[in-house]
Write a structure and sequence with these properties.
The chain contains 4 helices and 7 strands, in the order H-E-E-H-H-E-E-E-E-E-H. By secondary structure, it is an alpha+beta fold. A 7-stranded antiparallel sheet has the order 2-1-7-6-5-4-3, with helices on both faces.
Length: 134
């Protein structure tokens, strides 16, 4: 199995198969895509903006919101240096974003999935990557 296939297994088996995440992606902190779920193409500039918000100042997200791929979310919370959260306009779906030392992990949850469930799955993946120097 090649490196790209290994990263894709993190998405497919580690995140999507839980049933708590409906779309997911893992990118390097520089915006480089490592793996993603189908039809969830996050632009490099979107990734780098969110990395700078998590590692620096999240205040601009209050006005701008969170834009990932073709989806937009209302900014709800930032834990500096750790994570970022948002919800859609109906507040029945949202996004959880966590960083590790080298990666940023995105998880989208849709109606019927609790925010905390998706967040827990994405946070565990970020912790796993962090423990392994990624």
């Amino acid at each position: 199995m090649g490196k790209k296939e290994q990263w894709q297994a993190y998405i497919d088996d580690g995140l999507l198969k839980t049933g708590m995440v409906t779309k997911a992606a893992i990118h390097g902190l520089d915006g480089t895509q490592w793996a993603t779920s189908k039809e969830f193409q996050i632009r490099t500039d979107q990734v780098t903006k969110l990395v700078s918000c998590i590692t620096g100042d999240c205040s601009r997200l209050h006005a701008d919101g969170i834009k990932v791929a073709s989806e937009s979310f209302t900014f709800t919370k930032c834990v500096p240096g750790h994570s970022l959260f948002g919800k859609n306009k109906n507040a029945d779906a949202g996004i959880c974003i966590y960083i590790s030392s080298q990666a940023i992990i995105f998880g989208i949850f849709e109606k019927g999935i609790q925010h905390e469930r998706c967040s827990g799955v994405i946070e565990r993946m970020a912790s796993y990557l962090q423990r392994h120097g990624l």
